[in-house]
Design a protein that fits this description.
Elements: H1 18-29, E1 36-43, E2 46-53, H2 56-62, E3 67-73, H3 82-102, E4 111-115, H4 126-132, H5 138-143, E5 155-158, H6 163-166, H7 170-181, E6 185-194, E7 203-207, H8 226-229, E8 233-243, H9 244-260, H10 266-270, H11 272-275, H12 278-289, E9 297-298, H13 303-322
Parallel strand pairs: 4-5, 4-6, 6-8
Antiparallel strand pairs: 1-2, 2-3, 3-7, 7-8, 8-9
Helix pairs in contact: 3-13, 4-13, 9-12
Length: about 325
């Protein structure tokens, strides 16, 4: 799971999503967060938000690192609509290609894709499944460069496993690979944690700030960042889990809204809970659940199929964005 807290940054709640962290901070401050620029576009049921955290002060306010973020929100992904999945893959490919240009990654830059996560835990298997579907080409450039058609670049991919099964930090494995293969860019893919039920399984985040495996669920791990690896690192993540405390808090919100349709005296029903700020109420729920070990990480029962679908969306989008020879309008045909 990706970055949640860095030294000197404010804790942004149980979320890896910069968009959510900004929403929380804006609500707390009563307005837009200074130094955080956002722009939102709607495209056929897909909501795309571009966000730039411009400075350290803005980063401190929202608890996320300075950099550029793109968030794709698609509630319809839960409906297993294959046409919508193809549309999202195509849009993802287009926006990701633009993102590469924006941060100065050239058409011939060598790319290493890292699939973080645990094959044996479905909700954490996003990275390895994406790697399985990536069009890798580096070996062709190494072994038969004269036979490589125009429009392809050197792409390699690896799923390094997790500390619990390898005994080695993912960052250490990736450092060794980077030192030997010398890519110009690392793309790290990981499962995330969200603070909104609606965004679980429906959201993709892209960021140029690097990644810290495990930190979204409280496991501090050595990160994959430009400072550590010596090359730019783009993080791609999908929230696949949510804390039980978040579900309880969201349910309280929904119940309050439901009863407000019947009465303006919801305080009589919910007492102090009705008047608490959302963050304060969430902390109260955590204080109740944590001592008894009930603040579980929860994932939807359809996670098996969803992981396959979203991994294919990301993989096909990356294949099209990284290789000019791949048809942007038929990206789904380039996964295997």
């Amino acid at each position: 799971m990706e970055t949640e807290k860095e030294e000197g940054l404010v804790y942004a709640g149980s979320t890896d999503l910069a968009l959510e962290a900004n929403e929380i901070a804006a609500k707390r401050m009563g307005g837009a967060v200074p130094g955080v620029l956002t722009e939102t576009q709607e495209d056929g049921g897909v909501k795309v938000t571009f966000m730039e955290v411009q400075n350290r002060e803005a980063a401190q306010s929202i608890g996320k690192l300075p950099g550029h973020y793109i968030t794709f929100e698609v509630l319809g992904l839960r409906n297993k609509d294959s046409d919508l999945q193809d549309q999202v893959a195509t849009l993802f490919a287009q926006k990701f290609a633009d993102f590469l240009k924006k941060i100065g990654i050239g058409k011939d830059a060598k790319v290493l894709i890292i699939g973080l996560g645990n094959w044996n835990v479905t909700a954490d298997a996003l990275g390895p499944i994406v790697v399985e579907n990536i069009m890798v080409t580096r070996h062709f450039f190494q072994l038969m460069p004269d036979h490589v058609s125009p429009g392809y670049r050197q792409v390699s991919a690896v799923a390094p496993g997790v500390l619990g099964t390898t005994g080695i930090e993912s960052s250490e494995i990736v450092q060794g690979i980077v030192d030997r293969s010398k890519p110009d860019l690392v793309i790290a893919i990981d499962a995330l944690a969200s603070r909104s039920i609606d965004r679980v399984n429906t959201t993709i985040q892209v960021a140029d700030t690097g990644i810290h495996p495990g930190s979204g669920i409280g496991n501090k791990r050595k990160g994959l960042t430009k400072e550590i690896l010596g090359v730019p690192v783009i993080a791609i993540g999908v929230p696949t889990v949510v804390y039980a405390s978040t579900i309880v808090n969201n349910c309280i919100d929904l119940m309050i809204e439901h009863f407000k349709q019947e009465t303006d005296r919801t305080d009589k029903i919910f007492g102090l809970l009705d008047g608490l700020e959302e963050n304060d109420r969430l902390q109260l729920v955590k204080e109740v659940l944590n001592p008894v070990g009930h603040d579980l990480l929860v994932t939807p029962k359809e996670i098996d199929q969803f992981i396959e679908d979203i991994a294919n969306i990301i993989a096909s989008g990356l294949n099209a964005a990284l290789h000019e020879a791949v048809d942007m309008n038929n990206v789904a045909a380039y996964t295997h």
